[in-house]
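lol ok so funny story. i was supposed to be doing the assay writeup but got distracted and ended up predicting the structure for this chain instead. priorities right. anyway since i did it might as well share w the group, maybe its usefull for someone
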Amino acid sequence: MIMSLEDTLYPLLKLYEAAPQPVKTLAGRAYRAVPASLRYGPAYTRFQNEAREVETWDAEKIRRYQVAALRESLIAASKAPFYAERFADCGVDPKNFESLEQLRGYPLLTKQDLLLHREQMVNPDFDTKLRLYITTGGSSGVPVGFYLHKGVSRPKEQAYLEAQWSRRGYQPGDRVAVIRGGVTSSRADGSISYYDATRNWLILSSYHLTPERLPEYVKALNHFRPQHLHAYPSAALMLARGLEQSGLKLDFSLTSLLCGSEKLTAESQQNLEHFFGARVFHWYGHSERVVLAAQGRTSNHLHFWPTYGFVEFGEANAEGHREIIGTTFHNHVMPLIRYRTGDVCKQTNGGREFDWPAVKAVVGRDYEFLVSATGRHISLTAINMHDDIFDGLLAVQFFQEHPAEVECRYQTGPKWQNSRVEAMRSGLLAKLGDDFTLTLREVGEVEKTSSGKHKWLITTLKS
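and the output, tada:
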């Protein structure tokens, strides 16, 4: 596999982010001048073509593609000790996989399996230099580590994101303003933005978006004049509410709002589109890169890309919602087979734009925030973005009774090392900022709802 320049340079990302702005700008522009096919590698072009063409495929062509991709993933998985034992216990042999219906004979995979057996799930046919270690955002309260396939997983993600964003007019190289958890400063009065020249993106802090500092955001946005706003739905709504209440104006028009990583209700989407005068684009994905779903050009239903991964849906719960279950395509370093994502969705029987599996919405948590001494609202989505500070824990929960005072309760797993506590503390404080005090407390089990669901935040503060 030919490595992409992006994967080769990935270990240097933190050094780039910590560099002074002039250095970042110079290095970023040099990187962006390199052709995309070299930056992302040859797999990028393959997936670009695939994402563009699949909308025209008929059902039979999609079925043949999925059977072949599933067989490859199952064979790759069977090389790993964990899967080899599980497959043998179920009496299944990937070499005999010939129809989509046969997948039901394979065992389901849970996040707990990933936590306890990650290293036994790796395909030994691939050298360690082809593994890229990533952690999930832990939306179910269980941050999980796993391996992506270098030269494949990241260029594939880039190609598919660009393909679906194009449904709202995005083109590679467009100016994008981002409010999605980028840490611009750990100080409450620190900088609200920096320019990422590698992508021509203005990174704005989602940690400092307060009424007092809103004029700085407006000034930065009006100077940069982005074509698209790429934001958590909660951050986009906060920006809209702040502009409406303050009377401040943006002196440019947006082409689109790209809203992912959190649930987006139909009402919130309508409010954003009305306020900004631009169409919203919403999608569902996760760090594990198992399945990806997005709104269409005309339909707001989430359509699952049939060439990205294979999606199944569990039994309906009491509310009629069904769990999303996915099987990896293309990541042969560590395939995830029939992976229970923990995410549930509202089904639909109509309104599909493509002849692909589609859902009305993915049901997520309400927007949850920690409140600082200076009144900043810190989104838990941003706090829980992908890094390794929670790696090795079984669950994490935040507790807040008073502004500025936060307790992080954590439940350890078998691979947790107590020497990492201070690294977790410093990592959290870098995101929370200097107007918080943080207490860490190890617990036997975090508090759950009466139905057994994980609660990310327990708070007595009024929202």
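The radius of gyration is 22 Å. The longest helix spans residues 59-78.
back to the writeup now i swear
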